[in-house]
Amino acid sequence: MNRYHSSSCKTAYLIMRPVLSILAGIFFYFQSATSSAQSQSSSVSIKQSDEQQTAHPIQVPVQDENQEVVILVSGAGEWEVIQKEFFSNVPKESTPYGEWFLAEMPLEDDIFEVAFFYNGPGAIFAGGATQYAIDRWSPKLMIHLGVCNGFEGSVNKEELLIVERIVASATKITTDIDLSWLGAAATAWAKKGVIASGDKPIQTPAEMANLKNQFGALAWDRESASVSSIASVNKVRLLVIKSVACLLGNDPKAYEKQEIPVPVLKKLLDESLKMIPFWISRSSLEINEAP
Asked: Mind listing the pLDDT tens digit for each residue in 238-291?
């Protein structure tokens, strides 16, 4: 193959990869969409609820210096709290999917940088945005932070979960997450288990019980199935950490969309953010040191 032909192929690849990212997001969206799409959502939120996002133009990611650790935040409420309550003085930048910023965090005697990236809400944006993040920053570790709806009797409210398997609630396709690098210390401060995930909300106690009994699911969220699938295809190490904000049980009212007060959301996220240095220290990465 001559040099001109090789260059042309590389250019075509760079142009088409974002297109494939969008198509991947659309695929995961239609996996979980059903005819009841106009029914009320049971996803947790704060008063600034997740708004319907319009499609972004397809763009080739800007190739930044690699960021070995990328924190993915899919919920609009969670992102609002993280950027305003914890990193209000950090400059934010935009992408075709959402905002991102670099933050310095302590690790033993050093300071390291991590990229925080808003990649939601919903499966269609989470899938495409996760691929965008991989293409742009080439991370060695991605951490998906947020809140979820726990299943009553399996978890407690405000409990922290480490996800080892994700079940797509519409298709029942599962994705396993390798947590062997964390070691036994992982279960000392959080509960390890399975969650269900998909854009279609869980609407009845019977549906919750089915996921709980058939797959051993502890909780449900919207985006983790598509995030984990994209990470798996790209062979990028992923850690999914979810805090239980609400419980789904036998009360039908629990399946209506619930608002999470900002102080509660801040408390849940604070617990997760404090553990980031521990997770990174366990990952045996050569972390980007801040200048």
From this structure: 999 999 999 999 998 888 887 889 999 999 999 999 988 888 888 765 555 444
Task: Give whole-number Cα distances, 149 to 54, 141, 158, in Å.
Answer: 26, 25, 10
Which of 136, 135, 129 is closest to 102 using CA atoms?
A: 136
Tally of CB atoms within 10 A around 232: 15
- 102: helix, coil or strand? strand
In sequence order, what DSSP letters do the residues of 203-238 get, joined into one string?
-SHHHHHHHHHHH-EEEEESSHHHHHHHHHHTT-EE
CA nearest neighbour of 191 among 203, 179, 200, 199: 179
Crossing angle between the packed helical segments 3-32 and 123-137, to the nearest 10 degrees? 150
Task: Confirm whether pTM is higher than 0.90.
Answer: no
Which residue intervals of 82-203 are DSSP H helices? 123-137
Name which residue leads in pLDDT, 116 or 57: 116
> Which helix (DSSP H) or strand (DSSP E) does residue 190 occupy?
none
195-251 pLDDT tens trace? 999 988 899 999 999 999 999 999 999 999 999 999 999 999 999 999 999 999 999
Q: How many residues does the chain have?
A: 291
Residues 162 and 240: their CA atoms lie apart, in Å, by: 6
Please identify, in words, the CATH class of the domain defined by 3-34+61-282: alpha beta
Q: Which of 58, 110, 134, 165 is nearest to 277 (CA)?
A: 110
Domain ranges of the chain: 3-34+61-282
Six token digits for residue 69 = 């650790």
- Cis peptide bond prior to 277, omega within 30° of 0: no
Contact 216, 193 (CB under 8 A): yes
- Residue where the block lists tokens 């990229």: 115
